[in-house]
Amino acid sequence: TTAIVVSYYWHFVDVVWIGLFFAIYGLR
Q1: Alpha-helix residue ranges (DSSP H) falling in 1-28
Q2: How far is CA 27 from CA 6, 11, 20, 22, 23, in A?
Q3: CB atoms < 10 A from the CB of 21, how many?
Q4: How far apart are CA 4 and CA 15, in angstroms?
Q5: Can you tell me the distance from the alpha carbon of 1 to that of 8, in angstroms, rounded to the nearest whole number?
Q6: Is the per-residue pLDDT at 28 higher than 90?
Q7: Which pLDDT value is given to residue 11?
């Protein structure tokens, strides 16, 4: 269903943001 796709999409977005945050924080 659409709800499942949206749920997976937001989990993916969360993982991407966490990865970017750690990358930026680690490179400072």
Answers
A1: 2-27
A2: 31, 24, 11, 8, 6
A3: 10
A4: 17
A5: 11
A6: no
A7: 96
Location of structure tokens 């945050």: 21
Structure tokens at 6: 């949206």
Distance spanning both ends of the chain, measured CA to CA: 42
HSE-up of 7 (CA within 13 Å, CB side)?
Answer: 4
- pLDDT tens track for 4-25: 999 999 999 999 999 999 999 9
Domain positions in the chain = 1-28
The token pair at 21 is: 């945050």
CA atoms within 13 A on the CB side of 6: 3
